[in-house]
Amino acid sequence: MDTLSGRKREIEIIRDHIQRRKSLHLYGPPGVGKSGLLDYIIARWGEIPNPPVPIYCRNSGTLREIIHCIAHSLLGMFKQLKGLDKYLEPVELEGKNDVDDENILNLSNIAYRYLRIGDFCVILDHLEKVTPRIHSCVSALLGCSSIITASRLAWELADFSSISGSLALWHVPKLKVENLCKDDAFILMQSLHDLLNINHSDIPGLFKDIYDISQGNPKMIETIFSKARDKRYVHGGKLNLNLVVIDYRIDEVRMP
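RE: above sequence
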């Protein structure tokens, strides 16, 4: 598809912030499509006029994941990273193992240094736990480049109750990503139906039932259609939607 179903506004806002080197925080409930938006933006990065260089961290659950992702990306661009450790001794990183073995504090300082000398946009997905260490890291990143972040939290003041000092993240502009409206959800369902060739005798009724169950949640809609390809769920030419949803809920509980 040329665009994500029902996400034209969100795509335009994100691209505008990236082009203007402005930071932005995406938030919304699970399955609403935050990661899908970021993947879409990254896949079509060249459509942004005069874009910065992207560094995309899909998993940003820990400080180590964030810094290692950034450092590996920078190493791929610069081929060698140089800096100083806390004793002012030179540090040179020339390969993946050098990055993996380096002290996280040294690695952070080196990453911040290289981000400052370039034109970068750091994108952090699944930034769920705003711990003091991660807050300090992301606050430092805000001083080096623009950042696009995504999590379930809106980053209200209550989310920073355990953090003292700067509340830079609280001031980052926010974009709420919500479930699809009925019309856009039906467009998504039609495209999935055409793609997956689901066998059902009452397609309009099926779409209505799926919308009533999912309330327009894209992930749930896509998962239901994916499961509906299994012939075990089809009886007498009709999809047993109740059985699909039961298995969907079971899979949710099993997920870590």
